[in-house]
Amino acid sequence: MDPTRYIARHVIDLPRSGIRDFFEIVSKMDNVISLGIGEPDFDTPWHIREAGIYALEKGRTHYTSNLGLIELRRAINRYVEKNFTVSYRPEDEIIVTVGVSEALDIAFRALVNPGDKVMFHQPCYVSYHPSITLVHGEAVLVPTFAKDQFALTAEALGAAWQPGCKLLVLNLPCNPTGGTCNRAQLEAIAKFCVEKELLVLSDEIYSELTFEGGHVSIASLPGMKERTIFLHGFSKAFAMTGWRIGYACGPAALIEAMMKVHQYSMMCASIISQEGALEALTRGEDAMKVMREQYHRRRDLLVRRLNEIGLKCHLPRGSFYAFPSVAATGLNEKDFAVGLLQAERVAMVPGSAFGANGAGFCRACFATGYEQLIEAANRIERYVQKLAAKK
Known about the structure:
With 391 residues, this protein is an alpha/beta fold. It has helices at residues 9-12, 18-26, 46-57, 70-84, 99-111, 128-134, 154-160, 183-196, 252-265, 271-283, 285-309, 333-344, 370-390; strands at residues 33-34, 94-97, 117-122, 138-143, 165-171, 199-203, 228-233, 246-249, 321-322, 346-347, 349-350, 362-365. Helix 6 links the parallel strand 3 and strand 4 (138-143).
């Protein structure tokens, strides 16, 4: 018997994550400084952990509403209203999900018919394109470029748009580039979305990690709340990756459609994670700001060193990623990353893991210790010098 003949065609053709494949190699090596996996090196702040422990001690071990704890949804609205200047009804415009990944998945499953076209900017988070494929949608790629600091432009959207486009996926600040958009750029994008009647899925998981200029949500702009699903969570800003907790806010009819999928697949997010999320929103801002300052300091160090080494790198305004060009070495991104790992035990992710427009770049995550970043930069410099000596 050949079990592969039972696998759905669209899954057989689905590529494995370029990040995970690369880090299968890393996991088998010693003395590696990883600038790869996009996860905070900080543990979840103690008071958030205590909230989870206390919830267990109180016997908070049961199902919640499919939409999530009402007290958490109320806290989400207060937080979003304060930080993103847009308000949502906790009763029917907010759903708590198993991370932003589930929120994105159920949004696609609730909204995309086979053949519908979905636009997204590239380089991008590795899940977007496969998630569109899994709902039999058609991906429409919108390139961003280093010369623009990887900001998405309305001009690029206009050039990429095709009849039949239904959704636009935004990720600002962006994984892997750290690129984002200022208010004027977002206003131009919003105008385009209104003209083309596009619905927007706005993944703003890195919004708190904006270092200059402040973050603007497209949902807060005139005419956009009614056509935007705002996606956010706790993994990055509050160092809660393993808690798997996120949320989506949007028009009640769209949240209801997402809830229909959610109730049959996940039922509800973990109540323990929901209790931790409530504590994070209520009393977690100070710890979040401390972590953000550390990321800011690390960003400035790593980007400065990369440029000094000769790997041209823009200064990312947000996230905890640098995206240097390796073109000056004469190697492509895959050969550079593998060579660096083998020669100097530093792990960076080839930019092509994030789409074809990432070719020639590597992603370096600076969510690791400051002293480790210094050592990683020294090792990268040594490797680049060796490559130069061979020319």
